[in-house]
Design brief:
A hairpin with a 2-residue loop joins strand 6 and strand 7. The two termini are about 20 Å apart. About 50% of the residues lie in helices and about 25% in strands. The chain is of the alpha+beta class. It contains ten helices and ten strands.
Length: about 290
């Protein structure tokens, strides 16, 4: 046994380059396989990651949107029907606009909604207040700005109580929100200004909303989404198409896709390891066969 070890050590020293390359190749293959397996397993099986994503982006959210061919849109009757299913529901209408205060102006996204939107989206106020039911009821021209938009229009001055023209509507600033991003919101990174939905409908002449956000009670997101779809189908004709989606469904779908990708990568890594092992075995057997006469 000692002679065998001594002979192996001498052979490794005599062919240092070949030995080093062999160890390096196998190390890279083994390391890649372990990394792929570990990352995939952690992403798919670790419930903390899913819970963190749900908490960050709103795992209880259900978003109802309209299809391109839907000319009617989502109306107040739809909001009332959905409000009976979940904890809260709010209509949302979106539009790109320019906000102006004095000589300063900035591009923004107008979000016309109601007071329930604040709790559904877990927004955070920097100062002032959010939209209230009285704003919608009395069609008060109030607006809530994100902090980045308020800074662009007013600098370091206090914007509360000052006038802003947003989308052609002159409003009074009643609150400033911390900047918020949502996976459902396609605003190209522009800051947002929140108006009462009634004021938006009055100024634009539009009767329907672009979407409705619904907060499901507890963890019954899938069940509430199916109830929401059934409720809307009873109110809309067949040609008025709409979509019902939730963050929980997207996370489940991404987990399934990630699991498939991880399995494929693991198989590819195993094939690479097998190929490398066969290559090393071939080199070793060739060396032995060449020295057999000796």
């Amino acid at each position: 046994f000692a002679d065998t070890l001594r002979s192996a050590a001498q052979s490794l020293r005599a062919h240092l380059t070949r030995s080093s390359l062999t160890v390096l190749g196998l190390s890279i293959g083994v390391g890649a396989s372990i990394a792929i397996g570990s990352l995939g397993t952690a992403a798919v099986r670790d419930p903390a990651l899913a819970r963190a994503a749900l908490k960050k982006y709103g795992g209880e959210h259900i978003v109802i949107g309209i299809d391109a061919g839907n000319a009617r849109g989502l109306e107040e009757s739809d909001v009332q029907a959905l409000r009976a299913l979940g904890d809260a529901a709010a209509p949302v209408s979106l539009g790109a606009a320019k906000a102006q205060a004095g000589l300063k102006s900035a591009s923004c996204v107008l979000v016309a909604t109601t007071a329930d939107y604040y709790g559904i989206e877990n927004l955070h106020l920097a100062s002032g207040r959010f939209l209230m039911a009285q704003d919608e009821e009395h069609l008060l021209h109030t607006v809530v700005l994100e902090d980045t938009l308020a800074e662009a229009l007013f600098g370091q001055s206090d914007p509360l109580g000052r006038s802003v023209t947003a989308g052609g509507v002159r409003c009074t600033v009643v609150g400033v929100l911390e900047t918020y991003s949502s996976p459902y919101f396609a605003g190209d990174g522009k800051p947002k200004a929140y108006l009462p939905a009634g004021v938006w409908r009055q100024s634009t002449g539009r009767s329907g909303a672009d979407e409705i956000v619904l907060r499901a009670p507890g963890a019954d997101v899938g069940y509430t989404a199916s109830l929401a779809k059934a409720a809307l189908q009873a109110l809309h004709p067949a040609e008025d198409g709409f979509t019902v989606s939730s963050m929980a469904e997207q996370i489940e779908s991404s987990e399934r896709i990630l699991s498939i990708v991880t399995t494929v990568l693991a198989v590819v890594g195993a094939i690479c390891m097998m190929t490398g092992g066969v290559g090393v075995m071939n080199v070793m057997l060739t060396s032995v066969r060449e020295r057999r006469r000796e």
